[in-house]
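Example 9 (inverse folding). The structure is encoded as follows.
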């Protein structure tokens, strides 16, 4: 009834409309903020949050980017609908899992060899397997400090777009704890390259 009566007072009517719009916007933002981070590889909550931050601040991808049908098999994101932000998370998450598994395997092998088990024996292999499986639940993962500069901040007057894009990928892989001498570093960069190629490949698949 108040709304109906307020129509006789245009100013009051518009104040009500503006307030209603503000409330709806607040509710939408709150719902978005409450949504858990995209986590296709089931990382820990800390890992998932950190990966999302890397994809935003280093790679420059937006969580709010429009979702498109995921038609390209090479896209790192396994979901049926995706965007660059989600594909970035999927790619870095996969790199983390691979790295953690490799580190666990190396440590397990060293632990079992220290027990005097012979190289090439089934006893050593079984010991290493059981030890690795028991240790593959890290509380945080191999993250370096998240002191990344915003995307594009590292550009110089002589940086080309392709140079900057490669630098972002390398920085993102370093942010999850990989060094350039690590074979997993190359794989990580290749995964992010697939992310940046996805939108072009999707267009080809649609046509």
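The amino acid assigned to each position is listed next.
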């Amino acid at each position: 009834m108040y709304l109906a009566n307020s129509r006789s007072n245009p100013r009051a009517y518009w104040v009500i409309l503006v307030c209603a719009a503000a409330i709806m916007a607040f509710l939408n933002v709150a719902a978005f903020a409450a949504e858990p981070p995209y986590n296709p590889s089931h990382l820990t909550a800390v890992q998932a949050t950190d990966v999302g931050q890397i994809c935003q601040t280093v790679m420059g991808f937006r969580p709010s980017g429009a979702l498109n049908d995921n038609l390209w098999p090479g896209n790192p994101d396994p979901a049926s609908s995706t965007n660059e932000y989600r594909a970035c998370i999927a790619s870095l998450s996969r790199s983390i899992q691979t790295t953690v598994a490799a580190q666990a395997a190396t440590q397990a092998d060293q632990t079992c060899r220290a027990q005097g088990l012979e190289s090439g024996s089934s006893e050593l292999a079984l010991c290493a397997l059981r030890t690795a499986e028991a240790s593959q639940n890290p509380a945080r993962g191999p993250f370096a400090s998240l002191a990344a500069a915003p995307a594009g901040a590292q550009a110089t007057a002589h940086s080309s777009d392709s140079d900057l894009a490669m630098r972002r990928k390398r920085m993102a892989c370093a942010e999850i704890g990989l060094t350039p001498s690590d074979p997993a570093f190359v794989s990580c960069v290749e995964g992010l390259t697939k992310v940046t190629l996805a939108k072009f490949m999707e267009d080809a698949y649609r046509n």
